[in-house]
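Q: Got a minute? One more chain.
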Amino acid sequence: MSGSGDRPPEEAPAALASPQRRRLLELLRTDEAPRDAHQLAAAMGLHVTTVRFHLDVLRRAGLVGSRSQPRAAAGRPRTVYTAVGPPEPGGYPALTRLLAAHLADTPEARAARAEQAGVSWAVELTAEIDPPPGVDAEQAAQAVTRIFADMGFDPQLAGDETDRQIRLRACPFRAAARANPEVVCSVHLGLLRGTLTRLGAPSTARLLPFVEPELCLAQLIAAG
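A: Always. Here it is, folded:
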């Protein structure tokens, strides 16, 4: 692992305060092979200099390791990076596979039950919210975005009033969602719809998982 000179070590919570660094670490955790800064920059849509800065912060916090890897062709070795530590806290992929196997017999039934679980989750997460009467679609979209931000999804509210979208750029359950999308993604869909219902919003939602390798899209749809 390369050194960090005279710079002080970073604390892990401080290093993970940045949504971009959380996304970067999640990329490294879900990849089987190490990646270099150029590959990571392309995957995240960032400049390679920015990615190298974030990698350095994660490395000083002990969350990322780096090493030199010879190139297949002639040239200087490239520096590649890997995540340090368990791929997901609590073994979510194995847990969701176990739960999915006993949730229902068909993917459709599993999705329906998982969505209802997400609706129940929304009630818990919004228990302390006292929505004002007549909340509009924009206020609801901002409230949903805040909830998903607190959960670590690194959401970005985009679009306009007729086509409001929430770009979920860092699903903290990505590996589990890839293994069992009918369960994990349906829970998140239920959470979206349940939150909008709890707020009394004049809209509902649909969820498009993995529209890009590291991006899911929540679309807010006007009721009726």
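A: Residues 12-83 form a domain with the Arc Repressor Mutant, subunit A fold (CATH 1.10.10.10).
Q: Perfect, thanks.
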